[in-house]
Amino acid sequence: MQTTPLTESSLLPLVPAYDSILELAPYQTGKPIEELTREYGISDVVKLASNENPMGCSPRVTLAVTEQLGQLARYPDGNGYYLKQALADFNDVNIDQITLGNGSDDLLDILARSFVGANDAIVYSQYAFVVYSMLAKMQGATDVEVPAHRFGHDLKAMSQAVQDNPNTKIVFIANPNNPTGTQLEHKELRQFVASVPSSVLVVLDEAYIEYSPESNNRALIDEFDNVIIVRTFSKAYGLAGLRVGYALSSVAVADLLNRIRQPFNVSRIGLAAAAAALADQDFIEKTRLMNDEQMRWLEKQFDALGLGFIKSHANFIMVEMDDEDALLINQALLEQGVIVRPLLGYGLPTWLRITVGVAEDNMRLIDTLRSILTDD
Ligand SMILES: Cc1ncc(COP(=O)(O)O)c(C=O)c1O
């Protein structure tokens, strides 16, 4: 994968559609377990880097996936009827208010391609999910990054930024936010939506909503036609490997998105697995309880180690490595088989983002971190 900056001359005589495409850096994924095993010969790896569900997924998914195995020669239902019907019931919306995606990243991409052109702007917060700024660059649009307030979205400043940039087409808001774990109050979010012109699409990215049900802003869809909520089966539902996400919006917006998306953007197995996972809300409840309990335990350990952290409403937590270079600590953790996420790319060089694991994984993380910090 290309990691050095691209230059115009390196592609010549080919020329990308927009100069800003040359500024794109490849998305940094959490290191796969297989890669660490290959590089360091460690077989006993703990991955706390991609906000996946360490409990796996609902056992109902296995059955649903097995049932599809005899049908792999057949295309999936391009309309995803059964999954959409289940999501409509679950979210109390009409089926034609739903768009399915190959993960929620696919939906974010479809949104940018549908609404944002080269003369437009995308507004998002500093320290918000990195894909938003990448989409602006991909579309050749202006990316307006609004300084964060205490690591979270500063909605007043974001509203001002929309006013200052009348060509704004989309505002992206992650709630809870990745990587900071911060959450917005419903009241202030509603005020924000009311403050922006109805020609601006407000995208609420609720990838971690199951960990923070109180941040659910589903009601805004009924009130504002320019609000869209994007969710995923990759996090609490434990289906990151299958790539399924969905969007809730007005009928008109869903109609547009459904014209832009690829005809079979969710696989046959993905559709069946997501429907089975959605039906097992007990699993989601167990996931949430485990996450809450382990989050409290981790907070205590970070306190005991004298490490600062940001209160998180999701399944990960951002921890500050004092004045230490978090990249060095990250490297030392990797060498001992623990994968976490450094945040240099977010302009947070002293911070690590750690996904909450099951008790055993978290103990291993803390023991390894303690030994690294006390060895110095
Ligand atoms: C805030 C946020 N939005 C969207 C995504 C994309 O998730 P997926 O494409 O797996 O649904 C992520 C994944 O890390 C995320 O953190």
UniProtKB/TrEMBL annotation:
Coiled coil: none annotated. The keyword Ubl conjugation does not apply. The keyword Transferase applies. It catalyses: L-histidinol phosphate + 2-oxoglutarate = 3-(imidazol-4-yl)-2-oxopropyl phosphate + L-glutamate. GO terms for molecular function: transaminase activity. Residues 44-364 form the Aminotransferase class I/classII large domain. It holds the Pfam family Aminotran_1_2. The modification N6-(pyridoxal phosphate)lysine is found at residue 235. Keywords: Amino-acid biosynthesis, Aminotransferase, Histidine biosynthesis, Pyridoxal phosphate, Transferase. It is an enzyme of class 2 (transferase). Pathway: Amino-acid biosynthesis; L-histidine biosynthesis; L-histidine from 5-phospho-alpha-D-ribose 1-diphosphate: step 7/9. Its EC number is 2.6.1.9. InterPro entries: Aminotrans_II_pyridoxalP_BS, Aminotransferase_I/II_large, HisP_aminotrans, HistidinolP_aminotransfase, PyrdxlP-dep_Trfase, PyrdxlP-dep_Trfase_major, PyrdxlP-dep_Trfase_small. Its cofactor is pyridoxal 5'-phosphate. Homodimer. Belongs to the class-II pyridoxal-phosphate-dependent aminotransferase family. Histidinol-phosphate aminotransferase subfamily. This is Histidinol-phosphate aminotransferase. It comes from Psychrobacter glaciei. The lineage of its organism: Bacteria, Pseudomonadati, Pseudomonadota, Gammaproteobacteria, Moraxellales.
